[in-house]
Design goal:
Shape: globular
Largest sheet: 3 strands, antiparallel
Oligomer: single chain
Radius of gyration: 18 Å
Distance between the termini: 26 Å
Strand order of the largest sheet: 8-7-9
Structural class: alpha+beta
Number of helices: 5
Strand content: 15-25%
Amino acid sequence: MDIPKLLYNLREEASCPVCQDILKDPRYLPCLHSFCLHCLINWHRASGGQGDLRCPKCQGRSRVPASGDLKDLPTSFFLSGFIDALAIKESDKTEVICGNCDKKSYKISYCFECCKFYCDECLIGHNIIRSYKDHRVLAVKDFQEKDYEVVVKRPVFCSRKGHEKEELKFFCKICPEHPVC
């Protein structure tokens, strides 16, 4: 993987075509275009909020999930790694949100096992937990090229309740929005 080239193009890869900002809660449509969940909700509402969902980029039509809630659209796990890598890359200019307390900070660390950012206070709590003693934690200011690659290629875990520790390997053929661990 060409990490310098990836880091150079990261902002473009991790941007929402609707709001032009870094994707927040990225979801993808059957046409494989990805958007912020809130952008899709606003887009659907502006187009009447009924029936099919029209892709803001290619205008392809897709069904709204059976629940009627766009939160049930599949998460773009692939882009989540890019978004975290971008946050690490730009952490000297932009504060990063702690994955535990939601506080923004320039002094932030990343746990490779938890796949979360931690502020200094929450990192103390993380490191106190005995079962986390072998976790690899690194201050984002100390990231090297190889560390970015690990973040981008990290495994994805099942989102179903009770399966959170199961690595996601497949999606159901019949209903591809449902992960199968």
